[in-house]
TrEMBL record:
<keyword id="KW-0812">Transmembrane</keyword>
<feature type="transmembrane region" description="Helical">
    <location>
        <begin position="287"/>
        <end position="314"/>
    </location>
</feature>
<feature type="transmembrane region" description="Helical">
    <location>
        <begin position="191"/>
        <end position="208"/>
    </location>
</feature>
<feature type="transmembrane region" description="Helical">
    <location>
        <begin position="88"/>
        <end position="112"/>
    </location>
</feature>
<comment type="similarity">
    <text>Belongs to the UPF0718 family.</text>
</comment>
<dbReference type="GO" id="GO:0005886">
    <property type="term" value="C:plasma membrane"/>
</dbReference>
<keyword id="KW-1003">Cell membrane</keyword>
<keyword id="KW-0472">Membrane</keyword>
<feature type="transmembrane region" description="Helical">
    <location>
        <begin position="149"/>
        <end position="170"/>
    </location>
</feature>
<feature type="transmembrane region" description="Helical">
    <location>
        <begin position="124"/>
        <end position="143"/>
    </location>
</feature>
<feature type="transmembrane region" description="Helical">
    <location>
        <begin position="214"/>
        <end position="233"/>
    </location>
</feature>
<dbReference type="Pfam" id="PF03773">
    <property type="entry name" value="ArsP_1"/>
</dbReference>
<feature type="transmembrane region" description="Helical">
    <location>
        <begin position="46"/>
        <end position="68"/>
    </location>
</feature>
<protein>
    <recommendedName>
        <fullName>Permease</fullName>
    </recommendedName>
</protein>
<dbReference type="InterPro" id="IPR005524">
    <property type="entry name" value="DUF318"/>
</dbReference>
<feature type="transmembrane region" description="Helical">
    <location>
        <begin position="245"/>
        <end position="267"/>
    </location>
</feature>
<keyword id="KW-1133">Transmembrane helix</keyword>
Length: 371
């Protein structure tokens, strides 16, 4: 009898050990698969963005932070600038850019560090990726003119509202920033021309997405920019520019890549069909879920349109679609990590919460009362 009990006990222990071993093997394999997905997302992000988008954006932000005088930034974005000027410029300047939620970060960091008021700076942070002309036209073409026009108009209004709320809550009393070199008024008009050249380098890949025409324009622009930079600016100015650029790269890039890694995993764990199941209706919950889901996903420039188009085909309503169009380009997981680093956790989370909430409300109003 005892031998039978011992045999049963040994069999049970063997099965338990085998079950635990199988469980750990399965979990290990699953975690490795997710890691590969995250790495693939980072590789795709680097291939698509670093060379053609982020590098020009970093150089442009570095130039703003070093070569432009603080006075010139404060003239349009400072706390003492007329609100109708600062918020108007911040809200519509995104029309000139073709940036995603990550590419806009160096530009935001540049003007914010240079002394811009938190209100106009966050207005720019929201509007720049949301209202570029290419995205609006593409939205109207693929998703319909109603969503295209609504996206443009509502994004501008929401950007100003978010900026005003952030200004009311957190406007900095100490406009002076420590450790920032200021040249006073621009030493020469060449700074503006350099800004325009760098801006052209940044937007050319979006205007000319195919390689041959893009390189035909991009390479001469880069060569001209290098030549005039060496000709127009002295050694100290160039060193200051490169120093500011490198500082922004070190501050932003590691967190950005970590965020992209986990964003890729989240997309894998949160398939489109699962999202559609909860955003196909017109309940308040569907708008909140659409806004939160879009904020966690990563959309490169213009890619939000075909993705949301696919979701609408699967049954997502136009109200939740607008919520995603507003929250998606403005936020992403890597974007949120870096925003908290630049502004601080409290201000960063306030901005993120504002974007998610107002995007959900705007989609609800559009879906229930306008469309």
């Amino acid at each position: 009898m005892n031998s039978v009990i011992e045999d049963i006990s040994k069999t049970f222990e063997t099965k338990s050990i085998n079950s635990i071993s199988t469980y750990f093997e399965t979990m290990t394999s699953y975690i490795i698969d997710l890691a590969y997905i995250g790495i693939a997302s980072v590789k795709e992000y680097l291939a698509l963005h670093v060379l053609l988008c982020l590098i020009p954006a970093f150089f442009l932000a570095g130039a703003i932070a070093s070569l432009f005088s603080k006075e010139s930034v404060l003239k349009f974005f400072g706390a003492d600038a007329p609100k109708y000027v600062s918020y108007s410029v911040a809200a519509i300047s995104g029309c000139l850019l073709a940036v995603c939620s990550c590419t806009v970060l160096p530009l935001f960091a540049g003007i914010y560090k240079r002394g811009a008021g938190i209100g106009p700076a966050t207005t720019f942070l929201f509007s720049a990726p949301a209202i570029n002309v290419l995205a609006i036209v593409y939205t109207a073409k693929i998703l319909g003119y109603d969503l295209g026009v609504a996206r443009a108009v509502i994004a501008i209004l929401l950007s100003v509202f978010i900026g005003l709320v952030m200004s009311f809550l957190y406007e900095r009393k100490d406009v002076e920033k420590k450790g920032i070199k200021t040249f006073g008024d621009e030493k020469h008009a060449h700074t503006v021309w350099l800004f325009l050249l760098l801006l052209a380098i940044l937007v050319t890949p979006e205007i000319l997405p195919t390689w041959n025409p893009m390189l035909f324009v991009e390479i001469p622009l880069i060569l001209i920019t290098v030549y005039v930079s060496l000709k127009w600016f002295d050694r100290d100015e160039l060193e200051s520019w490169m120093g500011e650029t490198w500082f922004l790269v070190k501050q932003i890039t590691p967190l950005l890549l970590i965020g992209v890694f986990f964003a890729g995993i989240i997309v894998e764990l949160l398939p489109a069909e699962y999202v559609v199941k909860y955003v196909g209706g017109t309940t308040v919950t569907s708008y909140i879920i659409a806004s939160v889901a879009a904020a966690l996903m990563y959309f490169s420039t213009l890619t939000e349109v075909p993705i949301i188009s696919a979701l609408t085909i699967l049954g997502m309503g136009k109200g939740p679609a607008l919520s995603m169009l507003l929250a998606g380009p403005a936020l992403s997981l890597p974007n949120m990590i870096v925003i908290n680093r630049i502004m601080g956790f409290q201000k960063g989370m306030t901005y993120i919460s504002l974007v998610v909430v107002v995007a959900a409300i705007a989609g609800y109003v559009f879906g229930m009362y306008i469309f």
